[in-house]
Amino acid sequence: MNKSMKLLIALLAVFGLVAAACGDDDDSTTADAGASDAADEPAADETGAEDAPAEDAADEDHSDDISSIGAGVEVTMGRANWASGYIQAEIYKQTLEQAGYTVSSPSLLELDPSAGYLAMAEGSMDFWTNSWYPGHLSWHEAELTDGSLVGDHVSIVDGLFAGAGVQGFLITKSVAEENGITSMQQINDDPAIAALFDTDGNGTAEIFGCQESWTCDNIITAQIAYYGWDNIEQTIASYDAMFAQATDLANAGDPMVIYTWTPSSYVTTLIPGDNVLWLTMEETDIIDDSNPSGVEGGEFYDQRPGFDGFGADFCTQPCQLGWKPADIQVTASNDFLAANPFVEALFPLMRPSVIDVSILQVEQSNGDGSEAAVESIAAGWIADNQDLVSSWLEEAAAAVS
């Protein structure tokens, strides 16, 4: 395992995701109890060897039943237009296909959140796996032509990566240490420090923000208004282009601040504790639901209580990222869920390991960028975790039988 991968896992481990990914104590207790019960049962030669083929046949019949649940049902799936969400989308697609559903490739409907939630509300997309809540609740407030709201037509599905979307601002480590920079507020308030990040000579510090319509761009705009950052402005552009530029600056030891998030492969290039640090925001006054930028749904940009779980190796001190870890979840059309009770039962059960998916994202970023690579990586994970996937399918089937 290379250094960047180890650091990614270390970052995730800091806020307890390793434990979540590995299962809870109840799982191991159940497994141990099962092993104990098996030890108490008669040996195979006492019960009769002829029983085994019958059991195998029953298992095979059950598998056949599951693979036909979705026969004849076509599912239109989409995904968000950020690469860190591709793998989980493909895992959901291939899992549904094991239950017999015909699922369109998520790559055929790749949308930003503003378009994605509208598509689900209007019925042109059944679901995606790329919601970031609570921020994305702002899109639920959009009004349709009939006067109803998007939120009247879509449901947030429990499951996936609750509390896993840790996010914040990264600063070039050497620049922070050499200039005693510990917080975003300091960059705004100290003219000499702000000048370090003034890339166009307009007297204002520029930070790399978010891509337009990703929601994080709106939240950063609201933060700038809320904190009174008159000397900071957000650059909104293609995120990958901004990230490439930010990486070059950080590696050269030049001033740079950029918003980013985990789980993603981004923190294996801009590595907290190596070439960057997470940058502290005001701990006592994290943006609330007052909607300082006055936009539709802006009350959902509330980031309280923030996140302060990183130590001095990763974060300027006292560490407070100023962003609440997001719930990365599935959102689906109400009509789709109502018409497919098996899917409605299945989705809350699907909780792939966030550590696994983070590692797969690194594999994806190191690949050729093709859709075939995404499909292959997801298929490999499913093959390695078929027992887990089968348990999701079987429990969902039992719930609706």
Overview of this protein structure:
- The protein has 401 residues and is of the alpha/beta class.
- It has two domains: 65-163 and 328-400, 3-Layer(aba) Sandwich (D-Maltodextrin-Binding Protein, domain 2), CATH 3.40.190; 167-324, Glycine betaine-binding periplasmic protein, domain 2 (D-Maltodextrin-Binding Protein, domain 2, 3-Layer(aba) Sandwich).
- The chain contains 17 helices and twelve strands.
- It has helices at residues 3-14, 17-21, 25-40, 44-47, 51-67, 86-98, 113-122, 173-179, 184-189, 191-196, 216-227, 239-251, 334-339, 341-346, 354-365, 371-384, 386-400; strands at residues 74-75, 79-80, 102-103, 110-111, 127-133, 154-165, 167-172, 205-208, 232-235, 257-261, 276-278, 326-333.
- It has a three-stranded antiparallel sheet. Strands 10-7-11 form a three-stranded antiparallel sheet. The chain has a two-stranded parallel sheet with strand order 1-3.
- Helix 1 (3-14) packs antiparallel against helix 15 and helix 15 packs antiparallel against helix 16 (371-384).
- The radius of gyration is 24 Å and the shape is globular.
- The model is unreliable at 14-55 (pLDDT under 50).
List the helices and strands and how they pair.
Elements: H1 3-14, H2 17-21, H3 25-40, H4 44-47, H5 51-67, E1 74-75, E2 79-80, H6 86-98, E3 102-103, E4 110-111, H7 113-122, E5 127-133, E6 154-165, E7 167-172, H8 173-179, H9 184-189, H10 191-196, E8 205-208, H11 216-227, E9 232-235, H12 239-251, E10 257-261, E11 276-278, E12 326-333, H13 334-339, H14 341-346, H15 354-365, H16 371-384, H17 386-400
Parallel strand pairs: 1-3, 2-4, 8-9
Antiparallel strand pairs: 5-12, 6-12, 7-10, 7-11
Helix pairs in contact: 1-15, 6-16, 15-16
